[in-house]
Specification:
heterotrimer, A mainly alpha, B alpha+beta, C mainly alpha, B: alpha+beta, four-stranded antiparallel β-sheet, 31% helix, C: mainly alpha, MetI-like fold, 13 helices, 1% strand
């Protein structure tokens, strides 16, 4: 097990270096100039000289190779540089926003698990009944509805039905949990729906596999109550693929957040990312991509390890 | 929606122009004077973008002014109730020498910075020198407006003297610019970049906190030099996307948004919040302009440019577009209603502004034929921002179709539009003007040769226009200046490198609790909040 | 992989075309297929089907409620939403199908080459695929679309299609590689090698045709995802731009201002996206059950 973890961790480093390199060069071909946008975007007659000065100040006039060396050496010391737009350290800008996004992601995961396990189980136990059909349709719809649109519908529903809208400014959960939840529950629901849908489908199909096993077939004859008991034994095996899918889908969740944060005006890393891309703030985009890649890789690693803990066969394979 | 809405969602007014404005402003003033201001309370307002850093001298966006202006004092300012009258801020009084080259300012005594230190002439001098001659690494966006200044002197701690190399008709007005914050000379001496990361002024409000992407707060500065002001305990600027503003206003989550709303949004808030909101409307000191790439065929031929300008029926546009957008008043290169702007009679004589659109279009087609251009197909490069760019673009395309010109609409994200403009990679494009005050030296920068004024993206090179511009700037006699400006305008419209499409309307929605705020044609002015108070 | 006909004597094996077989065996998939065909027809014949020109601005009918004249109402420009939804299908299908196609072709080539050549090539390609997979799809597409800018050819933004296809490549490559690995064990590949066929001939003629089933399934699945992605990017203002009719774009801008005044501005384009993705998902799922039930996407 230890060597397996070590092996996996060892693989992370080259992958991250690859992400850093790819990201750097991809962004440098980005058209548009942040300095010009910043100084002339409002129509003020700023002279070329001033533009060049600012470019020099931000280090954008340095040769590409030297910028690249700066970026890579910075990464090695966990220094992501400064935002080209605000001139504040990228780490600081991300630091003030990342927790909100993680909270929404976490809440969406909880929502997904809370919905998926009972619904998927129900659907499998009552296969080919109306319960099953309803669950399946709801789940397939979950894959089709864009989370940002669902978010808009949620806002519209709150406004039209209750004449109420969530507060504008996000506060920390520890500072004011009720206010915090009254804001963040909606985006969590919007992005959590898809997540729940995927997990429900996986729960259903893996439980159906389990139900095919001999010992369960035997128990089937004894009636529903006994069946439930037996299913509970099999549930552990049925959960494995669900955990995997939750890990794999985490990337989707982050993607969904990028768009949905705009809808709910959530001051998280998704909104920051879209802003940074729009402005051509290279350093900020690079920093965010690295962060997201790290989170993504770590979540997948955690899922694999959890899988190993739950299923001894994996451990020996590694 | 999208990103970078800085100039995106602006405001509008369905009714026409000037009379209404004067009325609105007049009424607001009268009402403000009738009540005694109440102390206390925190004003919460929305800002639809966020300042990148804290340095007044380097910034250009309203998103900077709205949260930052309350922290600083200026030397002069515009009198909000009597725009464009200039009044003193730090300056108690001033005199101008007969030759117009020496300006002497007496400062208010007992002005204190937020850290308790005294503000004297030294601080004013240091701040202006930073603008005029920025030290290395400091950006001064409006350096060029002060190129007439020969020296800034401080004969005594309460007196500042500006000496000019030559007459500059715009000089005094530029000293009232909301961007010229007065910083502490000591702080600047220690670190010229101090204001980038710190807010330390002498304005009515002390800096509270700025949480990136979320909000900005200020607290009442008890040592403010105007007795009894400010009335508010503090303010809170909340950063939000423009699509969230209407909901926030309607739900009472914010009490104001000072930039301006589009007509549909204004009406929605009014319908939803009823008598809980007040609406202020005025013509806006901003216009939508059409830029031809004079370096590219066929727009290197003035006849073609003029023909396309002639095809646009601005008078019809004014009534049609005002209903759905912030676009409205017909005007030339200066804001209609400004004392130096062309009168309607003068305007209608210029190409593109005549009221007989049929005659204009016949002339346009004749010009095209003369120039040997038939079946013209061109791209219109525009910003990917609905209000008012898309609306203006769609209108222009429809107008040009009527003289047989086929136009493809190419809408780009702001950043890409900006780079297409400055690299000259377009046929014709929609651009905008937006200034903090009416002043030809400032407002004409989009109409000068590209060499002198890089924000004119047409690639124009017209020595005559540049000469007229320099002359008007040096002409302190108002009537003569007006003449020169008119001459400039006529030439600019005939050559048609850049032509106005329509001017904008501004409408600001506030909670009825907000008092003492005055509407001006510019969303950059009158945001120090010293006079603003809350009824409850 | 084709029709399963048992050895049971009383059942006469019928020769049915694969489409018919599919319809009989996968009724849900057939529904998806019908929906897809309807969408394709609507978008191909949009000029005939749509009641209005999708770009036609009508200042007299701004934000008109759904009525006999405007079934889905009109938007802030007075443009007919139904017509824009129909033309939007054209955008969605063009971008969806083309990006999924490009992604699948590149992914298949990469994955098969990786499996066929093995050793260092495999290692390098796999590293590359790992790196690409470390980017969440939306993040990768956003960065690529921003990096490439716009390049409109024939009314379609080619760079947008490329940006959407890039995140698909590594996912397809991974599946294609594992499918190709099992094909590679087959004796006929050894035979082809012994016969001295060129690498490209073996890969193109002998390996790729034998892994078409999973690739086809992925192709359908990724059309749905590409449509979603295009809608998201356009919503963010980084995809299709005005005045082109596109579903995500219709939801962006100030459409959120009309929650109360004109909810149809928001409802119909969103329904269109959901409907299209739903149809492709339904069809894709059934195609998988039919061709290769064990495939995990």
């Amino acid at each position: 097990m230890l060597s397996y973890i070590a092996h996996r961790l060892g693989m992370i480093v080259p992958t991250l270096i690859g992400v850093a390199v790819l990201c750097f060069f991809m962004l440098r071909i980005m058209p548009g100039d942040i300095v010009e946008l910043k100084l002339r975007g409002d129509g003020v007659a700023v002279t070329e000289e001033v533009i060049q000065q600012e470019r020099a100040r931000l280090g954008l006039d340095k040769p590409l190779a030297s910028q690249f060396v700066d970026w890579m050496t910075g990464l090695a010391t966990l220094d992501l540089g400064r935002s080209l737009w605000t001139d504040k350290p990228v780490v600081e800008e991300i630091g003030t926003r990342v927790w909100v996004s993680l909270q929404v992601a976490f809440m969406a995961t909880i929502i997904a698990v809370l919905i998926a396990i009972p619904l998927g189980t129900l659907s499998a136990l009552y296969k080919d009944t109306w319960i099953d059909y309803v669950v399946r349709v709801v789940a397939i719809a979950g894959l089709a509805v864009p989370s940002f649109w669902l978010g808009m519908l949620v806002i519209m529903g709150l406004l039209l039905l209750f004449r109420w809208l969530p507060p504008i400014e996000t506060v920390s959960f520890f500072h004011d949990p009720i206010r915090n939840l009254s804001i963040l529950i909606w985006p969590a629901l919007a992005v959590g729906y898809r997540y729940a849908a995927v997990a429900t489908r996986m729960m259903r199909s893996s439980l159906l596999e389990v139900l095919k096993e001999d010992y369960i077939r035997t128990a089937r004859a004894k009636g529903l109550y006994e069946r439930l008991i037996v299913v509970r034994h099999g549930l552990r095996n049925a959960l494995l693929p669900v955990i995997t899918v939750i890990g794999v889908e985490f990337a989707f969740l982050i993607g969904g957040l990028v768009v949905t944060e705009q809808v709910f005006n959530i001051n998280g890393i998704g909104k920051l990312f879209v802003q940074a891309v729009g402005r051509g703030d290279f350093t900020m985009v690079q920093g965010l991509v690295m962060l997201v890649a790290v989170i993504f890789i770590l979540v997948n690693l955690a899922v694999d390890l959890l899988y190993g803990v739950l299923d001894p066969r994996i451990r020996s394979k590694a | 929606m999208g990103i970078l809405h800085r100039t995106g969602r602006l405001a509008a007014l369905a009714t026409t122009g000037l009379a209404t404005t004067a009325l609105t402003l007049g009424l607001a003033t009268a009402a403000g004077a009738a009540e005694t201001p109440r102390r206390g309370g925190t004003l919460t307002f929305a800002v639809t973008a966020e300042p990148p850093n804290y340095d007044c001298h380097a910034n250009t966006s309203f998103a900077f002014i709205h949260p930052v202006a309350p922290h600083y004092s200026l030397l002069l300012k515009f009198d909000p109730a009597n725009y464009p009258k200039i009044t003193g801020d730090l300056a108690e009084s001033w005199t101008v020498s007969d030759d117009g080259l020496t300006f002497t300012f007496k400062l208010h005594p007992n002005v204190k910075f937020h850290d308790g230190s005294a503000l004297t002439a030294r601080d004013v001098k240091a701040s202006y020198e930073r603008i005029i001659n920025p030290p290395k690494g400091v950006v001064s966006a409006r350096q060029a407006t002060f190129d007439a200044v020969a020296s800034v002197e401080t004969p005594d701690p309460q007196t500042v003297v500006f000496k000019l190399k030559g007459a500059d008709a715009s000089f005094l007005a530029n000293l009232a610019s909301p961007w010229n914050c007065v910083y502490s000379a000591d702080k600047l001496a220690a670190d010229p970049k101090f204001p980038e990361k710190n807010v330390m002024g002498s304005g009515p409000f002390k800096f509270g906190e700025h949480v990136s992407g979320s909000h900005w707060t200020g607290q009442r500065f008890d040592g403010y030099f105007r007795q009894g002001e400010p009335y508010l305990d503090g303010f809170r600027a909340v950063f939000m996307s423009s699509s969230a503003v209407t909901n926030a206003l309607q739900g009472g989550q914010v009490q104001a948004e000072f930039r301006g709303l589009a007509p549909a949004d204004r009406d929605r808030v009014k319908n939803g919040a009823g008598d809980k909101v007040q609406v202020h409307e005025a013509p806006w000191l901003a216009s939508l302009i059409l830029v031809f790439n004079a370096k590219k065929k066929p727009f290197d031929d003035p006849r073609v440019r003029r023909a396309l300008s002639l095809a646009i029926d601005r008078w019809q546009a004014s009534t049609a577009l005002a209903k759905i957008s912030i676009l409205g008043p017909v005007g030339g290169i200066l804001r209609p209603g400004y004392e130096l702007a062309a009168s309607e009679a003068e305007l209608t004589k210029m190409p593109g502004f005549g009221k007989d659109i049929k005659a204009a279009r016949d002339e346009a087609m004749l010009l095209l034929r003369e120039a040997g251009v038939t079946g013209l197909t061109v791209n219109l490069t525009n910003r990917n921002v609905n209000m008012p760019y898309t609306i203006g673009g769609v209108y222009v395309i429809d107008q040009l179709r009527q003289i047989g010109v086929t136009v493809k609409h190419e809408q780009l994200e702001t950043k890409l539009w900006q780079s297409a403009m400055s690299s000259g990679n377009y046929d014709m494009a929609i651009d905008f003007t937006g200034d903090f005050m009416d002043d030809p030296s400032l407002n004409l920068t989009k109409y000068l040769s590209t060499e002198i004024s890089p924000v004119n993206y047409s690639g124009q090179a017209d020595p005559l226009l540049d000469k007229l511009y320099a002359q008007q700037r040096g002409e302190t006699d108002k009537a003569k200046r007006a003449q020169l400006v008119r001459e400039f305008e006529r030439r600019a419209m005939e050559q048609a490198y850049v032509v106005p499409i329509l001017w904008w309307n501004r409408s600001v929605v506030l909670s009825t609790d907000v008092k003492g705020w005055e509407m001006t044609p510019s969303h950059y002015l009158n945001q120090d909040l010293a006079d603003v108070w809350l009824a409850k | 992989m084709t029709t399963v006909t048992g050895p049971i004597p009383y059942r006469i094996p019928k020769r049915r075309g694969p489409v018919l077989t599919f319809i009989v065996q996968q009724p849900l998939g057939a529904i998806g297929l019908v929906a897809i065909v309807a969408m394709v027809l609507a978008s191909v014949f949009a000029e005939v089907v749509a009641p209005y020109d999708p770009l036609e601005v009508n200042y007299a009918a701004i934000l008109a409620a759904p009525s006999a004249d405007y079934w889905f109402g009109t938007d802030a420009f007075g443009r007919d939403i139904l017509s824009r939804v129909i033309y939007g299908a054209r955008t969605a299908l063009a971008v969806g199908v083309l990006s999924s196609l490009i992604g699948c072709v590149l992914g298949t080539l990469l994955g098969t080459a990786s499996a066929y050549f093995g050793s260092t090539t495999d290692l390098v390609i796999q590293r590359f695929v790992d790196i690409m997979l470390a980017f969440p799809i939306v993040v990768l597409a956003l960065v690529v679309v921003a990096a490439l800018g716009k390049n409109v050819i024939g009314g379609i933004d080619v760079n947008l299609i490329i940006a959407i296809s890039i995140p698909i490549v590594p996912k397809v490559a991974r599946v294609a590689r594992s499918a190709a690995l099992s094909v590679r064990q087959m004796p006929y590949i050894d035979a082809a090698r012994a016969a001295g066929f060129s690498h490209s001939r073996i890969v193109m003629r002998h390996m790729i045709p034998n892994i078409m089933a999973p690739v086809l399934i992925l192709f359908t699945a990724f059309i749905a995802q590409a449509i979603l992605l295009e809608a998201s990017l356009s919503f963010l203002g980084l995809g299709v731009t005005e005045p082109t009719a596109a579903w995500g774009l219709m939801l962006s801008g100030n459409s959120a201002d009309f929650y109360e005044q004109a909810p149809w501005v928001i409802i119909f384009p969103g329904l269109a996206i959901s409907f299209a993705v739903f149809a492709f998902n339904l069809f894709g799922d059934s195609l998988r059950d039919w061709l290769d039930p064990k495939l995990k996407i």
